[in-house]
Amino acid sequence: MSSIKDQFLLDPQVHYLNFGAFGACARPIFEEYQRLQFLLERQPTAFITKTGPELLESSKMALSTYINAAPEDLIYITNPTFGVNIIANSLRLSPGDEVLSTNLEYGACDRTWDYFCEQKGLHYIKQAIELPILSKEHFLDSFWKGYSEKTKVIFLSHITSMTALRLPVEEICAEARRRGLITVIDGAHVPGHIPLDIIALDCDFYVGACHKWMMTPKGSSFIYTAKNFQSMMLPFVLSWGYKPVSSSGSTYIDYHTFIGTRDFTAFLTIPASIKFMEDFDWPKVAQNCRKDTQQFLLEACEMLGSSPLAPVDDDFILQMGSIPVSCEKPGEVKEILLDQFKLELPVFTQNGNVYIRYSYNGYNSQEDLEALREALSYLRAQKKI
Fold first, then answer.
1. Which helix (H) or strand (E) segment is 277 a member of?
2. Domain count along the chain
3. Does one domain contain both 178 and 301?
4. Is 10 exposed, middle or buried (0-12, 13-18, 19+ CB in 10 A)?
5. How many CA atoms within 13 Å lie on the side-chain side of 69?
6. Which runs of E-coded beta strand occur in 161-257?
7. Is 345 found in the same domain as 261?
8. Is there a single domain that holds both residue 365 and residue 254?
């Protein structure tokens, strides 16, 4: 079997440490994508009206098994932000109700909740989480301090974007269920990164991306919706799925699947993604990546005199690490990383703090981490960080 690195189309001249932002599509998955697009263009009508929908159901069955969720509870969307928009627009809440979240959430989703809460007269509570997080108990104590009798919805990242932290969503969902709250989980970084069991999690809504850690083509994501909320899910586009002549029996499926002509072949590559991960023993690959990620985070923080944002273990740190740095010009640092060291990774600012975040997947090697180590040493010597 060839090496994992040979299975990707990434530029070998660039140290790509940014799976967390835009996952790279593995070669066999991309080839399946091209095959499907060819079939679409060879017989557009037959593909869009018959072959494609049949393949869509097969794809959804494969995904439902992979994440342990009933296929009828899943719809495909282009990205998690789109999904959060649908959910925020659809929830039936009253003026004065509160949506409880944290100050660690992804910016696009923050803006989504800001907008819909303003439109509906709701309050979006971004509970401040003190960093570093000392333990799960520390996080949970901080988070629930934002709860009030007006809280109706919990919105939380499973794995955060900028701080790259796994949050204890299992405990949050269990407590929210006890309190009668609606749970919306942003799992953009989860599928293909860590095992996902939707049924065990028992949340009301879950949005996930397949085009990040599952390595499918860009524009393939999903929403899980618990059955008791499906009838209220409003489409952004009204098309043939609205009051269809031939219905699936679920407005949730019809409203959000048949929304006009589009290339949905990216959704159909999910079975190829799952097979790719099986072929390369992805749980073992992920385990090795976590070990390297965690070790490097400890070394980098020691080098720079900073501290990790949470305990460096599988409870909080997986295949992404965010290194806290003192930095006045994050944009300049990012340019130096790419232009001088051929390192593709983000430099984030959140809540006044700056982080250099690296993502580490099967494509990567110690050579990539050594390049980052050299770059950090240079930036420190130049007093850029």
1. helix 270-279
2. 2
3. no
4. middle
5. 28
6. 182-187, 205-209, 221-225
7. no
8. no
- The model carries a pTM of 0.96
Final residue of a structural domain among 276, 309, 332: 276
Nearest Cα residue to 157 out of 123, 194, 199, 115: 194
The continuous run of DSSP H or E covering 36 comes out as: helix 27-42
| Listed residues 255, 276, 297: the one ending a domain | 276
Residue among 203, 107, 196 at smallest CA distance from 153: 203
pLDDT digit string, tens, across residues 226-243: 999 999 999 999 998 888
Place of tokens 């009838």: 231
> Mean of the pLDDT values across residues 76-99?
97
User: What is residue 228's three-state secondary structure?
Assistant: helix
112 contacts 84 by C-beta, under 8 angstroms: yes
Beta sheet of 347-350, edge-to-edge order: 320-325, 353-359, 347-350
Print the domain residue range for 320. 5-26+281-381
pLDDT of residue 3: 85
**Omega of the bond prior to 95 within 30 degrees of 0, cis?**
no
